[in-house]
Design goal:
Helices cover 38% and strands 10% of the residues. The protein is α+β, with helices and mostly antiparallel strands and 263 residues long. It folds into 2 domains: 12-160, no CATH class; 163-263, no CATH class. The protein is globular, with a radius of gyration of 22 Å.
Length: 263
C-alpha cells in the first residue's frame, strides 16, 4: 500500500492527479498504471474512472452514461474495454462502482452511441440506469481512508468481451497487428482472421469468437491489410512526407489568414 500524501490542490485536474497519486504511489508513479487519454479522466485495463466535483448534484445517471460513451468508443477503436466504471465524487469523497457487464448492449451499439457528444451524455438515461454494484467511501490524504478503494483497484483486471462487427473490426485489427508478436503470432491479415475465429492469442481476452464471413467486410477489406501489405500496395506514407505535407498545409493556412486580415 503506497504512502498517502496530503491534498495540495482543489481544482478538478489537480485533484485527479492527487487521487491517483494517493491510490498508486507518490509523485508520478500512478502514470505506470493509469492512462489519461482518449478524452477520459483515466483508465486501467479493468477500470474506467470518471471524475466529477459532485456526482450526486451533477447526476449519477448522466455521469455513468458519459462513461458508457467512452467505452463504446474503446470498442470501436480496438481498445480493451474495462469491466468496471468508478464514478469519483470529489466533494462527497464517494466512489460509485458499476459493472459494465450490465451495460454491454450500449457498448456494442457503436452506431448509436460512439459518436454521441460525451459531455451531454445519453438522453433520458436516468430512466434506464441500473443498480450500482457498490459505493465506496474514501478520505484523500488518509492511509486508512484509501484502503477500501485500493483493495478494489488492486484486484486482477477484468475486461468485457465484445463481438466483432464492421464497425469495430478495423480497430481490433490495429490492436492485433500491434500485439501479435507478443503472442508469437504473425502480424498478417490471414493470421488476424484466424485469430478472430480461433481465439488463442492477442485478442483472446477481449473479443468473442467471430463466426461471420469475410464478405461482411468487403467494403473495408483493404483497410484490414497488415502494415507491411499496406506499404507494399502503396497505402503507406513515410513519416517525413507526412510532416512535409502538414508543414505545407500550415503555411497555406497562414497565408489565407494573413490575407483575410489585410482585407
Amino acid at each position: 500500500m503506497p504512502k498517502i500524501t496530503t491534498v495540495s490542490s482543489v481544482d478538478e485536474r489537480s485533484y485527479q492527479d492527487e487521487f491517483y497519486s494517493c491510490l498508486y504511489g507518490d509523485n508520478d508513479k500512478w502514470k505506470e498504471y493509469v492512462n489519461v487519454d482518449r478524452s477520459t479522466d483515466g483508465y486501467t485495463e479493468g477500470i474506467l474512472f470518471e471524475h466529477k466535483i459532485n456526482v450526486t448534484s451533477y447526476g449519477e445517471a448522466k455521469a455513468l452514461s458519459q462513461a458508457i460513451i467512452y467505452l463504446t468508443r474503446f470498442n470501436r477503436n480496438g481498445v480493451p474495454v474495462p469491466r468496471y466504471v468508478c464514478l469519483v465524487s470529489q466533494e462527497e469523497e464517494k466512489i460509485f462502482v458499476y459493472d459494465m457487464k450490465n451495460y454491454l448492449p450500449y457498448i456494442i451499439d457503436i452506431e448509436q452511441y460512439a459518436n454521441m457528444q460525451a459531455s451531454k451524455g445519453i438522453p433520458n438515461f436516468q430512466n434506464r440506469i441500473g443498480r450500482r454494484m457498490m459505493m465506496i467511501s474514501y478520505e484523500l490524504g488518509s492511509y486508512a481512508g484509501m484502503k477500501d478503494i485500493a483493495s478494489f483497484v488492486e484486484k486482477p483486471a477484468e475486461t468485457l468481451k465484445v463481438n466483432i462487427t464492421p464497425h469495430n473490426v478495423y480497430g481490433w485489427s490495429v490492436y492485433y497487428y500491434d500485439h501479435a508478436k507478443d503472442f508469437h503470432q504473425k502480424p498478417e491479415k490471414k493470421a488476424f482472421f484466424n485469430e478472430l475465429r480461433n481465439l488463442s492469442g492477442a485478442l483472446s481476452s477481449y473479443i468473442e469468437p467471430w463466426t461471420g464471413d469475410e464478405t461482411d467486410f468487403r467494403f473495408i477489406m483493404d483497410m484490414l491489410n497488415d502494415p507491411m501489405t499496406q506499404k507494399r500496395l502503396g497505402c503507406y506514407t513515410p513519416p517525413q512526407y507526412s510532416k512535409l505535407s502538414a508543414s505545407l498545409v500550415r503555411k497555406a493556412a497562414d497565408r489565407i489568414i494573413k490575407a483575410g486580415k489585410k482585407d
